[in-house]
Amino acid sequence: MQNTPIPIYRPYLEGNEKKYLNECIDTAWISGGRFVQDFEAAFADYTGAEEAISVTNGSVALHLALHCVGVRPGDEVLVPTFTYIASVNAIVTAGAIPVFVESRPDTWLMDVADAAKRVTERTTAIMPVHLYGFACDMAEVQQFADAHGLKVIEDAAEGFGVRIDGTHIGTKSDASTFSFFGNKTITCGEGGMVTVKDKDLAEHFRVTRNQGMSPTRRYWHDRLGFNYRMTNMQAAIGLAQIEQADTIIGRKREIYDAYRQRLEGLPLSWQEAPAGRFESSYWLVSLLAPSKEARESIYMSLDDAKIEHRPVFIPAHTMPMYAENKETFRVAENIAERGFSLPSFPGLTTDEIDRVAAAVRRALS
Length: 365
Ligand SMILES: Cc1ncc(COP(=O)(O)O)c(C=O)c1O
Known about the structure:
Elements: H1 17-27, H2 34-47, E1 51-55, H3 58-69, E2 76-80, H4 85-93, E3 97-101, H5 112-116, E4 123-126, H6 138-148, E5 151-155, E6 163-164, E7 167-168, E8 175-179, E9 192-196, H7 199-209, H8 232-243, H9 245-262, E10 269-270, E11 278-279, E12 286-288, H10 292-304, E13 310-311, H11 330-338, E14 339-341, H12 350-364
Parallel strand pairs: 2-3, 2-4, 4-5, 5-8
Antiparallel strand pairs: 1-9, 6-7, 6-11, 8-9, 10-12, 12-14, 13-14
Helix pairs in contact: 1-8, 2-8, 3-4, 3-7, 9-12, 10-12
Bound molecules: pyridoxal-5'-phosphate.
């Protein structure tokens, strides 16, 4: 088994996925259907969100959220530069201007003190991004947003199963978004969810997701809308996944603990959550090598052992389309130079964890 490749992720499809998908095909309900409502209800129930609106993927979830909370062309939106590019692209798709914010060296997430320096009279929203299963301090973000009259849109694409003081993230802000891509904690293949607190606003999201069509008059479109609907087949998989959410997240916690134990004593830094109050879902176990060169050695050692790895995100301000102001973000750039993620899927065995840890250890000793 020593030479069997270990992927970075493999979805955990051990429940009712096939049964529910067969139901879609047997009943011919493949576009809309009962699973869409059932998945939304199960998602709201699991997270404690007031309203959950399913969509095609986590990227359009962000665009829908920005559009429906009222971010307009020319507005400025605060967003961490250290994020997946979809956070930033969604702001631009809404016609708004992304204003990049530095990361904190401990959590790697948006530094609210830095955001404070970047507020102008055109700033209308802030988008904290919860990366790798770790949460931004939402009490701090909300207090800051209230002080400046900003809308809060949480990008919780990677944050399913993450709690602060027992409350699931993405349930208390103006709008929050989740992704169900194949490598996410729960998956639909592709898929996304938006959560909001308010029933009327949720209705606006539902209508806008459906090309702006009136729920009471067919083919009457009283507002701008988009086709961002989730299919019944995506939702069928999503429902089967959420039924297993506790098992999946429980297993991911065990994997994180196992890595920490096996990699102890090595010169690696771990993404940190403030102690006690924050419960991570450990979406992708991610850490920092002591240097860029050391990360290369780790990659080589993992490659030799046929173990897949991935770098952390490259800061958005360095991408050609966003690089015009030439500003440096030292913390984010340093994390990006040294950060990498290890295989973190629920089905990872103890032997495989041993193999991964041994390969990392070989590179650093
Ligand atoms: C932080 C973040 N935001 C947004 C997205 C976009 O989600 P999707 O891939 O479902 O469009 C992702 C997904 O990879 C993500 O990691």
